[in-house]
Design goal:
The complex is a heterodimer of chains A (about 375) and B (about 120).
Chain A lengths: L2 H7 L6 H6 L3 E5 L2 E6 L4 H10 L1 E5 L4 E6 L2 H4 L18 E7 L5 E10 L2 E6 L4 H9 L7 E3 L3 E7 L3 H8 L11 E6 L2 E6 L8 E7 H12 L4 E3 L2 H10 L26 H6 L5 H10 L3 E8 L9 E4 L2 E12 L4 E9 L8 E6 L2 E8 L11
Parallel strand pairs in A: 3-13
Antiparallel strand pairs in A: 1-2, 3-9, 4-7, 4-8, 5-6, 6-7, 9-12, 10-11, 11-12, 14-17, 14-19, 15-16, 15-18, 16-17, 18-19
Helix pairs in contact in A: 3-8
Chain B lengths: L4 E2 L4 E6 L2 E6 L1 H7 L2 E5 L6 E2 L4 E7 L3 E5 L4 E6 L1 H5 L2 H5 L8 E5 L11 H10 L2
Antiparallel strand pairs in B: 1-2, 2-3, 3-9, 4-6, 5-8, 6-7, 8-9
Classes of the chains: A alpha+beta (about 375), B alpha+beta (about 120).
Chain lengths: ~375, ~120
Amino acid sequence: MNQSAEKITDLKTALYNFHIAHGGKMVPFAGYQMPVQYPEGIMKEHLHVRSAAGIFDVSHMGQFSIYGTEEEYLPLEKIVPIDLKSLKLNQSKYTVLMNKEGGIDDDLIVTKVEGGLNIVLNAACKNHDVERIHEVIDPSKTKLHEDLSLIALQGPKAVEILNTLIPGVSELTFMNGASFQYRDAKVFVTRSGYTGEDGFEISISNSQVEQLCQTLLENNHIKLIGLGARDSLRLEAGLCLYGHDLDTKTTPVEASLTWALSKKNKEEGNFLGASIVQDQIQNGTVRKRVGIKPEKTIAREGSKVFKGDQEIGIVTSGGFGPSVNGPVAMGYVLKEFSNEGEDLELEVRGKRHAAKIFKMPFYKKSYVK
Amino acid sequence: MAEKKYSKKHEWVELSGDIATIGITKHATEQLGDIVFTEVPDQGKVLDAGGEAAVVESVKAASDVYSPISGEVTESNDAIVGDPSLVNQDPEGNGWFFKLKVSNADQINELMSKEDYDKFVTENV
């Protein structure tokens, strides 16, 4: 794509001008112009989220609703293998959108709400996801909310600060949500996030999001955080980035995500690609997603993994972990070499460098249960 | 000491006799952000002008550092290997990368003055 064409298709979130005003360095990401960092830089932003709290604009992600009775939305289980009947009201679950080859079309969060389901989809996948969902759910019963923004407030100080603005959010437990009133805005808040920290995701109208961010920023414990730190935070937490650690040709079993599928669905095999998934659960897979801790060299996405002379895998996400204060990576290796502590080598710029299989997360979570 | 000269790939060179000290510019460090890893060439390695010489990595990405001038490495800065943040703190001083015994001192004339480099950076943002 040439640059001028790219500019025309670059979408903006409702916070675009706000990012610019705060010195956000904008880059194209999944069709959007998003801030990769602010003036303080990725390292400081990352550490700030671990020690205080940070705001992330994640409005590029798709906020999708299915309206209807349990009977009407139950067919979603054919492509999203979670037990929707046992999901409690206001409970959220991380899960995947399956394809018929047993691969993952997207990873997503489903929340049961009054009158239906809310689903958060990855930005790059959202239009495809909506088409897929429309294969099993009446399109007239669904909506992709272009009028809503989504911000994440993450970090140990998030709860105290947000609870003063939106009283009651401190009562939410991890992976639960509820509707709240914030000034004249109706907001939906879930206690969730993708950083390995306690925190919240707040869904609010495009017209009110900037005012909320402005008010949050008045607290000097809070900073704006870009996509760069979001990536290093999620990698330290051992969380997958779709399109890198997960794709259409990778199954949930290979991705070490069988926990994201409900027990009932795995047993009954009532979803697309189930026979492949069931077979892999029974008989194992050739490769498996693992954490990899390089001794000292940073190995980025695409670095080959070796055991002796044998090429045994590839790094799918890798970088420097500011809280670990060293390189961290995840990737896929042959199953026989996937045990914790296994010595490996990573090829970086033509040379081999020592690494070990590491049980993720690299950084210990502090979610409120 | 002679004045620093600058390359289009954002390295600086300071020539003293036949020894050139080479590092990356302040502008380069601002673009890279927080530097977390560096790799410097071994002593005795022969480098060609424009060839890959060292590596610098920020949280974001890895970049090659090219030698703007040909010569043999006489010394590398181990301090920036131990503490890569030195490059951010003092890119055009204590954050130098390596020293070369230059094989063709005339090559330095092909590089930019500080003024020309600043202009080049402004025009290429």
